[in-house]
Amino acid sequence: MENYRESLTRFYEKHHRMPSFSELMKLWSYKTKSAVNYRLEQLIDAGIVRKEGGHLIPDRMAGVPLLGLVEAGFPSPAEEELLDVMSFDDYLTPNKESTYILKVKGDSMIDAGIQEGDMVIVERRATYKPGQIVVASVDNEYTMKYLRRSTSFDKTQDRSLTTGKKEGEYYLEPANNKYQPIYPKESFRIEAVVTAVVRKY
Amino acid sequence: MAWNAPRSFPRAILHIDGDSFFASCEVAKNPQLRGKPVITGQERGIVSSMTYEARALGVRRAMSLHEIKRKFPEVIILPSDYETYSIFSHRMYEIVRRYTPVVEEYSIDECFADLTGLRRTLRMPYPRIVASIKRDLEQELGMTFSIGLSATKVLAKLGSKWQKPAGLTLIPLSDTRKYLETTPIGKIWGIGPNTSAYLQKFGIQTAYDFTIRSEAWVSEKLSKPGYELWKELNGESVLAVDGESRETYQSISKTKTFTPPSRSRTAIFSQLSKNIENACLKARRWNLSSSHIFFFLKTQEFKYHGCEIKLPHPTNVPQDMLRAVKDHYLSVFRSGVEYRATGITLMHLQDADTRQLDLFGAVRKSEGLQHVFTSVDALCERFGKHAIFLGSSFYAMTHAGHSGTRGEHAERTDALFRGENMRQRIGIPYLGEVA
Asked: Tell me, what's the ipTM?
């Protein structure tokens, strides 16, 4: 009896589930399922395993941690429930074909929580909106900033005279007081929008 | 002749061609390269791809870099980054697949697609579908494509070549004559210099001259491919777009150039051994075996010395091939000659599961090795390509294929993220650093 219990425990530890009848046939080298059943009855009598709703459940098997067995006979949730999970790939890069990565240099976006050495995931899109963190090329160099659009307040209009900024014009704003906003002149192009930041420790 | 058929596109076949693809991938990654003459192929010593700016200067494919540096010092020379090129290529296919499932992955920078019958589902006429595909490609990949749409593959291919770069050429059947009259016969896809010279003997100068020959004349004077070409040019689609996503290969080739060139019998054999290992790896990935192999050594004068070998039984285990190659290697190798590359081609590919036993038990022995390679492949899957390799490939695997400036590898391998390594990186194009 001890041998049967041990082999069952080993199986459970390896697969995190109880074996099926056909697997038990192999495990115990039986030729018929009725032989398996006979042996199982003995194990059930000994209180080592239980049968509930036609499913085999570990009871007093050595070394098997019994966690989360709330309701007896609850069907194994594995298959159905896992159909609706997504992989990290799907989560981080839902639009595979337009996704790119960059490595962050410097601390101009530190107040947005983006640090030097971080990986930023970006997407190339047709249009970009103010408020998004974008990657733009300014003088043929990539820069990552908030995309902003100057508003039509009187005050800002006044200031815009001094900075040469016109109403409704796009500009790039860093997330760090040490840096100045960038008011693009001629060579300015938004390349992509930041959709995620990945940092591995 | 189907040109006066009632419909412009009895079939709607698309050919897409990435403009100077490798160089464009580099420019798409790095904005500093925009508008500049850029070429790739630093590690090969010759130009393998160039931007239109470089072409405008006079740079041509296969020019030696030595010549480039002397004549065009302003040209930016980059090492090839095949990993990134493959990702861009795959993305190109996937974007086209959003519109139609029938996409033929013709080569790394080209594909055919069949749009026939999709107007209703996509709620657009063909020209709009094509424009939409082109916009998606260019916006998401950051490079330009030249596209042709017509009723057959051969005409679509003519269309994509018509206007480059960033061209979009629709050839409805009613316009075909106009295009073919101005196209020399040798410019048609599938007509090489020999066929072209042959046809010119019959007074055929343009593609149009060819199409007006009678069917009887064509089938008498040309073989089947020529006849099919004639039909395709006449607007009758006979070459189907093969939408099966690269399920199998006719042959598998692996060639690698190394620098400096070598005279060493053992070092060159090691290079060949590495190529054989890589070819076998690919064959196993597609579950194919080969019964005929061809290996060659390429001299510094670009001459090929090689030989074809029939193997005792089909195999995808490198030891089987190396055994066969070893016997012939010495008769091909000449001491004192400088070699610059080696290569191997596996031909007569067949399904690896169908095996025939032989008299002397060689197949059984090979089967044993097959098991070994199942494990080897599993290890390489986990730890990266070449985690395990044959002793005969040791020299080639441990010595960089290129020394000096040509030994420079693509930027990506120097800019690893935490958790990446030299062998395995995240499969997303890296655009560099951003401040």
From this structure: 0.72
